[in-house]
Amino acid sequence: MQRYFVEPSNMGEREVMIEGNDVKHITRVMRMGVGDHIICLNNNGREVLAQIDKVENHRLVAKIVKEHKNLSELPVSVAIAQALIKGDKLDYVVQKCTEFGAKAIYLFASDRSVVKWDQQKSAKKIARLKKIAKKAAEQSGRLFIPDISFTSHLVEATTEVEMRLFLDEEKAKKHDHTGLFDALHQHPSSLLAVVGPEGGLSEQEKTIFCEHGFQGISLGPRILRSESAAIYTLSALSYHYELSR
Amino acid sequence: MQRYFVEPSNMGEREVMIEGNDVKHITRVMRMGVGDHIICLNNNGREVLAQIDKVENHRLVAKIVKEHKNLSELPVSVAIAQALIKGDKLDYVVQKCTEFGAKAIYLFASDRSVVKWDQQKSAKKIARLKKIAKKAAEQSGRLFIPDISFTSHLVEATTEVEMRLFLDEEKAKKHDHTGLFDALHQHPSSLLAVVGPEGGLSEQEKTIFCEHGFQGISLGPRILRSESAAIYTLSALSYHYELSR
Hints:
The structure is a homodimer. Chain A is α/β, with parallel strands linked by helices. Chain A folds into 2 domains: 3-68, CATH 2.40.240.20; 77-243, Alpha/beta knot. Chain A has 8 helices and 11 strands. In chain A, a hairpin with a 3-residue loop joins β4 (47-55) and β5 (59-68). In chain A, α2 packs parallel to α3 (119-140) and α2 (87-99) packs parallel to α8. The first copy, chain A, is elongated. The first copy, chain A, starts with a strand and ends with a helix. The mean pLDDT of chain A is 96.
């Protein structure tokens, strides 16, 4: 069944109001109308089954039929920090990180990032990436849309995170692959994984991360592209927390 | 350093001969010439460091300087069977499955595959996908390029594989997520994971798979796109076999 995130303020006790592009999607693309059922989420922990009750031009009202229990979130709050990479690859990272369960995505300009964002550019880009994340969260059955932000101060922006990791090709070259496994066995309540750009993180960046308690980890013996690393990490976390006994 | 797969017959005891597009890539794109070093692989278990010795128009000869030990392959032979999906997504699956360590990729027309291939079309498509796999294998440091084939008889084509799994959304809906973990603890020497198309595998397909000893598994509580499932599976396998103690 179709799923739509709405503003928390638009989900009441008995009714949900849907506005904007989703109205068009429901009525034109899905060709649904009064009496049809949809799933609505408030991105605040609430998922409900609702029946369309009123359809106007730019808004739609649905009566809440049932509260759903959504068990689709990873048991650990996982954030990904992705160095800026070329546009379409960044779209892809955001879509997949959402699909694979990330709770937050930080974008940052790494020393070796070829792509540069100014403040104005970043605002537009983030708005676009938020739409991609919303759609991916709806399609993958997530209870939350990951927060997406551009930061120039990654270390300071993530001090709340209990365990901070960064992907370190040097560990891989030394065949030292057990860092992630050992990290997860410390049972962190929240976790951040920093992914470098195509050229990898610079020595200076790694030094700063280490000075702030970040741990370098390997993702195995194969050289992963920048846009693949976060997906590998989230899959490994899902396997560890959700598929293992 | 740049890596190039060559025909086994082109790698001798002391010399490697490179032909075709790779010559252009080495001389024009990388602007390398006599005296420069490259890594060559014969897709047959051999990786060598070689120094360019002669450059002609359409061929290049490099002297073998050193035999390399390549440890980039998964300890278990993993094959992915991907139902036909739209072209660019299939390119992506092949690139990522190569990057993430698949030994073979079977493409098959699933009951719910929207895309259809005839024999002529499939030959062209496979040739194109083999190029994508070669490039991805070179970039990710693989020792082997995965075999890519289109089959109308998936069950018969994979009888040699010790453990055959298929992704089953029904298991996920029942919150029965430990199938993959349990399967890996049976220590199979070779493994196949079947991924359905956008609409998933049909009930009939699942029945046939079960009749032939395939096991249905869940990839966790989130709904993954068809093009994401193989990547999740390979990442989980890598974490299990390469990153865990």
